[in-house]
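Retry 2 of 3 after timeout on previous attempt. Resubmitting structure tokens to design endpoint.
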């Protein structure tokens, strides 16, 4: 399994970046190759993408979600992948860091070669840049889900 770790500083408060990331159905607006994302329930997400010229579908389960901190997932069917996106407050309350760690299984020679040539890294870097442009350009999130999945219970 290949592992990719990338991060970006975003000029919005951590809650704005986190809230936007919970709007999975908006991912095609800034993620290259993602054609559609359907949130089936609070923890189940159906993905449809084009990877290396091939259509792929998979179901992923949110395994941990802590508001303003992290969202972790694991695929259950289709393309084998898992990961976590973390949100970290910076000294400037109007900025935050978004860090993505993802594991994935290239399924064939074409995907393995693309990974070896750095295509996956560049795609993820581009997706994070487009997310930054998307949320900074709006200044506010398109929606939010502030529930907790797994992990420690948040207390007010």
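Retry 2 succeeded. Sequence:
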């Amino acid at each position: 399994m290949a592992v990719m770790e990338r991060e970006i500083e975003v000029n919005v408060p951590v809650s704005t970046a986190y809230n936007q990331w919970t709007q999975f159905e908006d991912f095609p607006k800034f993620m290259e190759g993602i054609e559609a994302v359907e949130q089936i329930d609070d923890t189940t997400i159906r993905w449809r993408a084009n990877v290396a010229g091939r259509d792929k579908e998979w179901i992923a389960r949110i395994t941990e979600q802590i508001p303003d901190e992290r969202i972790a997932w694991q695929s259950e069917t289709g393309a084998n992948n898992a990961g976590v996106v973390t949100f970290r407050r910076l000294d400037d309350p109007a900025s935050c860091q978004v860090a993505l760690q993802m594991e994935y299984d290239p399924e064939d020679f074409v995907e393995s070669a693309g990974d070896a040539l750095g295509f996956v890294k560049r795609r993820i870097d581009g997706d994070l840049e487009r997310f930054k442009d998307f949320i900074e350009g709006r200044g506010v999130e398109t929606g939010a889900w502030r529930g907790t999945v797994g992990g420690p219970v948040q207390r007010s």
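Attempt log closed. The chain has a mean pLDDT of 89.
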